[in-house]
Amino acid sequence: MQERSFHIITFGCQMNVHDSQWLGRALTARGFAPAPLEEAQVVLVNTCSVREKPELKVMSTLGRIRQATGNSPRVLVGVTGCVAQQLGDALFRQRQVRLVAGSDGISGAPAAIERLLADPALRLSLLDFTAHYEEREAGSPLPRAATGHVNIMQGCDNFCAYCIVPFTRGRQKSRATAAVLDDCRALLAAGTRDITLLGQNVNAFGRDASGDGTAFHELLRRVDALPGLARLHYVTPHPKDMDAEDVAAFGELEHLCPRLHLPLQAGSDAVLKRMGRKYDAARFLDLVARLRAARPDVALSTDLIVGFPGESEDDFQATLDMMRECDFMASFSFCYSDRPGTRASRFLDKIPPEVQQDRLVRLQALQDELGTRWLAARVGQEAEILLEGRSPRDAAPDGSGESWQGRDIYGALVHVNLPPGDHLGRTVCVRIAHAHRHSLVGSLPGNAE
Ligand code: SAH
Ligand code: SF4
Ligand code: F3S
């Protein structure tokens, strides 16, 4: 075991990935070094409870940690994030677990780890929700990366019938605009060119007791104007909260990319009503039409749930119809799963797993078709690629270059052969030569692919 070393295992959404990156930087600034699981003194599991059997996943991960560390009492295990918030002190039944830190408590985890290392008899749980967005210690310098994420809020107030997030992340708390802008400036100073603003319901930014009154579209405008920014994105918006200004931003802001992840969840009005989504199919389609009017090339992706309690085959067909009508370039799709404490978990007309699974397969086949068609339509077009790193693909067979990968303004992954050199964060203009199932291949003008 290596003294003052850490290893972080992450499940869940981009907000969790971002929290884990911050935890790593905070520990590094305190003199810890990253290490493989087998050698780490501090092992953290940052957990997600949004779907299916998250507790089992955490328990099996703790088993894996026990095995890798020889169940040594000198190894400090911490469970953080949404399952930690949900299960709380019950996690201490696992002998190695000495830290349990929930969604807000995670900001205190680095200091808690220092205390736990100093006092081997101690266990600590950080489970309280804070009234305001808790600013976090700065951590070690940001890594050099083309893309970066900035949290703009914590929690969610929507209580969609199926969703555990309002319970695990607490009420919505917006961050101060100045703090968001500072984080964006720090990323840009470190060479990042592409920023994604993160939150569970970003368009409701500022509309809570913790916010400073700045509306989301105003925040977008201010981030968009920061010198050095090439691309701006956000995730996740709620269709009911996309106001006229948020739509207009797609036609007005120079760096806001024409790609929006807009969760539909279901196509049937009856299901949407029971989900508590507060929009119907017609309103969603109207929003899509207004987005396309503001920015005709906007590409849409979505989240979909199949087998919500009471979903009939006709309801499911309505979801497929909406997918075609909205022409989603991509989607994340899930079988409905009961989450403790949610309204839907008490609904009686549950859909059998085999019916759910059958619907999921059919939905994903349609998405494959739509996604493949969207990618194929790009062949022959010119595209501006922001380079994110070397790609695992083989470079030119004659060895004349290196294969790099990056994304176009729609977020599609594009591979391109480039002359040897460091291209991280550069943009290149390519012509799309081929479409694969999930990515594109581009070539520099004048180069045959
Ligand atoms: N705040 C975002 C993301 C929430 S969680 C939003 O409102 O869209 C990410 C996705 O997980 C959701 O969009 C939903 O599609 C899915 N999800 C959430 N709870 C679920 C459940 N109980 N069963 C299946 N999928 C679920
Ligand atoms: Fe969950 Fe709904 Fe909030 Fe999204 S908006 S996090 S689905 S409650
Ligand atoms: Fe999962 Fe929590 Fe994110 S439940 S999806 S890690 S907000």
Automatic annotation (TrEMBL):
- Catalytic activity line of the entry: N(6)-dimethylallyladenosine(37) in tRNA + (sulfur carrier)-SH + AH2 + 2 S-adenosyl-L-methionine = 2-methylsulfanyl-N(6)-dimethylallyladenosine(37) in tRNA + (sulfur carrier)-H + 5'-deoxyadenosine + L-methionine + A + S-adenosyl-L-homocysteine + 2 H(+)
Name all MTTase N-terminal domain ranges: 4-118
**Protein residues bound to [4Fe-4S] cluster 2:** C156, C160, C163
List the CDD domains: Radical_SAM
Any Pfam family from its record, for instance, is Radical_SAM
Which keywords belong to this entry?
Answer: 4Fe-4S, Cytoplasm, Iron, Iron-sulfur, Metal-binding, S-adenosyl-L-methionine, Transferase, tRNA processing
EC number(s) on file = 2.8.4.3
Q: Which residues bind [4Fe-4S] cluster 1?
A: C13, C48, C82
Radical SAM core domain: which residues? 142-373
For whether the record's keyword set contains NAD, the answer is: no
Main enzyme class: transferase
Cellular component terms (Gene Ontology): cytosol
Q: Which GO terms describe its molecular function?
A: 4 iron, 4 sulfur cluster binding; metal ion binding; tRNA-2-methylthio-N(6)-dimethylallyladenosine(37) synthase activity
Instruction: State where it is primarily located.
Output: cytoplasm
Task: State the family it belongs to.
Answer: Belongs to the methylthiotransferase family. MiaB subfamily.
Give the function comment from the record: Catalyzes the methylthiolation of N6-(dimethylallyl)adenosine (i(6)A), leading to the formation of 2-methylthio-N6-(dimethylallyl)adenosine (ms(2)i(6)A) at position 37 in tRNAs that read codons beginning with uridine.
Q: Known PANTHER family for this protein?
A: CDK5 REGULATORY SUBUNIT-ASSOCIATED PROTEIN 1, MITOCHONDRIAL TRNA METHYLTHIOTRANSFERASE CDK5RAP1
Q: What is this protein called?
A: tRNA-2-methylthio-N(6)-dimethylallyladenosine synthase
Q: Say which species the protein is native to.
A: Candidatus Desulfovibrio intestinavium
